[in-house]
Each structure stands twice: as structure tokens, then as C-alpha cells.
Task: inverse folding
């Protein structure tokens, strides 16, 4: 499949890229979440790039990025609501 291209509006920019390994009973996936911000409205939107839509660079960087994201998630102090 051809790599996915993220279309940006005139005031939009990519603010983060989050590679993630996810799974559930009987399934696994490795999406890349692309967060885009509109600088005029401050609205955020999220695009998803599936493994078969990645560029060669996204393939090469996926594992190291997913490891960094997992470490960052563990580093955030949280309290679960009861």
C-alpha cells in the first residue's frame, strides 16, 4: 500500500507523532497517531497511520518511538478514580 499522506490546512501543523503497540483478545496492531493543531482555532485533530501506510522512515523509527512513548506513559503520575 502507498504511504498515507496527512493533509494539512493553511494554519495546521503536526504537533506530535505517537507510535503505539496495542492488542486485545485475538488482535494486535501498531498504529502511529498523528496529532494536528490549527494555530488559529487551537483545535486538535488526530489522524491514524496503519502499519501498511507507513513511510520507510516511520517503519525505521517505530520501535524506538514506541519504547519512548511507553516509558513516558509510565513516568506520568496518575491516580485512578474509584
Result:
Amino acid at each position: 500500500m502507498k504511504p498515507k499522506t496527512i493533509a494539512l490546512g493553511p494554519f495546521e501543523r503536526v504537533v506530535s507523532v505517537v507510535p503505539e503497540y496495542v492488542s486485545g483478545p485475538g488482535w494486535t496492531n501498531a498504529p502511529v497517531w498523528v496529532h494536528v493543531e490549527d494555530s488559529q482555532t487551537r483545535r486538535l485533530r488526530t489522524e491514524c497511520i496503519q502499519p501498511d501506510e507507513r513511510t520507510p522512515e516511520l517503519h525505521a523509527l517505530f520501535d524506538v518511538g514506541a519504547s519512548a512513548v511507553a516509558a513516558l506513559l509510565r513516568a506520568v503520575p496518575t491516580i485512578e478514580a474509584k
User: Anything to note?
Assistant: The radius of gyration is 15 Å. The chain has a mean pLDDT of 97.
